[in-house]
Amino acid sequence: MRLISVVAIVVIFGFIFVGILHLHPIGEPVGNPRILYERPPLGIDTQGVTIMDDYFLRNGQVETGSNNIVASIVFDYRGFDTLGEATVLFIVVSSISMLFFTFLKSKSIVSAGVPRARQFPRIESRIITFGAFLMYIMILSFGIYLVVHGHVSPGGGFQGGSVMASATALLLISFYITRHMQRTRKIFSFFESLGLTIFIGMGFAGIGISFLYNFLAHGTTVFGKIIPFGPNPGYLISAGILPWLSLAVGIEVFFGLSLILVTLFHASGVKNNL
Amino acid sequence: MIYYFFLVISIALVITALLSIYFRDLLAAIVSYAVFSLVLTVLYFLLDAPDVAIAEAGIGAALTTCIFVIAIRMTRRREE
Amino acid sequence: MSAIILYITFVLLFTMGLFALIFKRNLIKIVIALNILDSGMNLFFITLGYRHNATAPIFTLLPWDTHITMVLPTPQALILTNIVIGFATTALMLGVAILTYRNNKTLDTRKLRGVEEL
User: Fold this and answer.
1) ipTM score for this prediction
2) Which tens digit of pLDDT belongs to each residue from B14-63?
């Protein structure tokens, strides 16, 4: 049996290795490297476009009003795909809550369950709690910055949400919170559902033309600043519904990942003899 | 020039991945995996993907380590 | 060599992950192996979109001249979502591993209840 496994791994290794020899060399992908040249400042222009990425690079900024082409793909061109990903995240968080349901309903949670000697070193040091609190504020501010400026600079809902969730992890392990877990999980699950609901609601708001249509871009007074092609210092009131979708995904990712952390941390305090 | 950076970072990636598979102590394996993620973040930044670098730094280095440590705390530390 | 260096890294990471996935018995080690395999795939996709002497696909405060090029943005957008989903599925796998440990008092896949009868 081990022999068969080794042979299978070697065969797969050989296939992939022969496969990569036929790929393009690193740094020279398909597509037109001169795709940004001689672009008129406004309007859709498909001159020299051969592949999909060329179209996004040449038209993404003018069409969606977002300086960050990756964000414009995630939330505008492939917005339906992002809705699917957000749904997958929601389902996974629900499954984890369901898996640990009997754990969290049991009455045997005694000071996070573990005997006092085996716990993490009790954090009563002022230095650690105060430093963790300062770091918490800074990480949370950075995450909010990433979410809000998702269409201007590197960032967006997924990155900002995960950074903010790491702030939650810091708070959990430094303060060793064991109280009010049930209420915390209720609040977190409410906000997670709220994020997904905002996303779907913004999708249905433009249903007159199509689902997830970017109806706020191109000249409306809210978030509709028309951006000509080329570098600019970055405008917050641009890109239509893209900042709203980014905010919704940021809320959902932050509270969803925090809910995973809080659930597992809470369940780790239950006694072994269930 | 940048290919030398790629070479060094690739060697670091392979070594940390091997360590995280090799260690019998699961806590050491997970710390190796965190280092692996951090090195991968640098590589993403060199590959001109700042968005992916931020996400990998937040998820791979911080959250994955935290959740693995919680899981080890609930099970056992040595791989038998 | 310099043209395929990161592809070779991907192949090594993928094979290591597959090897550990098959031959390791500890459930948490299997989850680590899946994570390494996942990271290798992410690296492969980002490498496919890399373009030499290019900038990131962001126009804000870009040093503009007439010879500017950008890397391909679509692989980055795909991998961005994949990382978050990968963490969520990792958490789900760990939850199943924890419940397995609670029920069987072991993490070894050969010592689980019902394995002998197969």
Assistant:
1) 0.91
2) 999 999 999 988 999 999 999 999 999 999 998 888 999 999 998 988 89
The 10s digit of each residue's pLDDT in C35-89 is 999 999 999 999 988 888 888 888 888 877 777 888 899 999 999 889 989 998 9
Which of A73, A159, A260 is facing C74, going by the closest CB pair? A73
Cα gap A98→A121, rounded to integer Å? 31
Angstroms from B31 CA to nearest CA on chain C: 11
Q: How many Cα neighbours within 13 Å face the side chain of C35?
A: 36
Q: B68 is in which domain, residue-wise? A: 2-74
Inter-chain touch C80–A37, beta carbons under 8 Å: no
Selected for mutation to probe chain C from B4, B45, B75, B77 (highest C CB count within 10 Å) is: B75
**In the beta sheet, which residues pair with residue A270?**
A109
A151: closest chain B residue by CA:
B51
| A234: alpha, beta or left? (left if phi > 0; alpha if psi -120 to 50) | left
Residue B67 in domain: yes
From the list B6, B50, B58, the residue facing A162 with the nearest CB is B58
Of A154, A257, A261, the CB nearest to B54: A154
Cβ within 8 Å, pair B73-A268? yes
Closest residue in C to B1 (Cα–Cα): C2
CA A151 to chain centre: 14
Predicted TM-score (pTM) of this structure: 0.89
C61 in a structural domain:
no
Count: domains in chain B: 1
DSSP A84-131: HHHHHHHHHHHHHHHHTHHHHH-S-BSTTSS-GGGSSPP---HHHHHH
Residue C70: give its domain's CATH number. Answer: 1.10.287.3510
C-alpha span between A98 and A26 (Å, rounded): 45
Token code pair at residue C103:
């029920």
